[in-house]
Amino acid sequence: MTFGLSKQVGIATDHRGFGLQEELVAQLRAAGHGAVGLRVRFLIASPGG
After folding, report:
1. Per-residue pLDDT tens for 10-49?
2. Higher pLDDT residue, 9 or 4?
3. What does the DSSP assignment read for 1-41?
């Protein structure tokens, strides 16, 4: 139940998460929220990871 409130959501994935991203964006839009799928072009490795 959203009580008339909608959210804007951005979901970023790498190539392995693209299928899940599409599914999440579709479900969020169906629930009345604004959703944008973002693609990551470059990854910067963090120290220790």
Report:
1. 888 887 888 999 999 999 999 888 998 887 666 666 666 5
2. 9
3. --TT---EEEEEE-GGGHHHHHHHHHHHHHTT-EEEEEE--
In the structure encoding, which two tokens stand for residue 13, read together?
């994935």
Distances (CA, A) of 43 to 5, 26, 49: 34, 25, 12
CA 10 to chain centre: 5
What would the two tokens of residue 40 be? 């990551």
Cα-to-chain-centroid distance, residue 36? 6
